[in-house]
Design a protein that fits this description.
Strand content: 5-15%
Shape: extended
Structural class: mainly alpha
Radius of gyration: 23 Å
Number of helices: 4
Distance between the termini: 45 Å
Largest sheet: 2 strands, antiparallel
Strand order of the largest sheet: 1-2
Length: 148
């Protein structure tokens, strides 16, 4: 059996120290009992409404995602909900953020089709030009699949 490298030994010592410190100082926990007021428990989000394929994804994205955009003619970025993307055309490209989202929704409606509760496509390949939001859309799909 090989001896651990000095770095591996250091990591093991640090992990052991953290574990011992956690055992001495356990995190405080909040106990919620049946007689606790209703406000003490967080409301349950009904994610079932987001589980119906492409329409569920689009609904989830418009309800939960904010994107960082630079308004036309501006220099400061701002966070905007997907459902409230501006439809003002950019002076150089002639396209708006809203138009880009609408075009993405058309593609997503085909890519996320479900048949019998299962996705029809196991692999999605997006061939869009640079800067069209491929990475963002794929991250949103993964988050949607994780949470819903």
């Amino acid at each position: 059996m090989r001896r651990p490298t000095p770095e591996q030994a250091r990591h093991a010592r640090e992990a052991k120290t953290r574990k011992q410190a956690a055992a001495k100082n356990p995190p405080s926990a909040t106990l919620i009992t049946a007689d606790a007021p209703a406000a003490a428990t967080p409301p349950r989000v009904p994610y079932e409404q987001y589980r119906d394929g492409p329409d569920g994804f689009i609904r989830w994205a418009e309800d939960h995602i904010n994107v960082n955009i630079t308004p036309a003619g501006g220099t400061m970025e701002k966070w905007v909900p997907v459902s409230e993307l501006p439809d003002t055309p950019h002076p150089e490209t002639g396209r708006s953020y809203r138009q880009m989202w609408e075009e993405q929704k058309k593609v997503l409606r085909q890519a996320l089709i479900m048949v019998g509760g299962r996705f029809q496509h196991r692999l999605i390949i997006l061939c869009w030009p640079r800067g069209e939001g491929k990475t963002y859309v794929l991250c949103y799909i993964l988050l949607w699949k994780f949470f819903c």
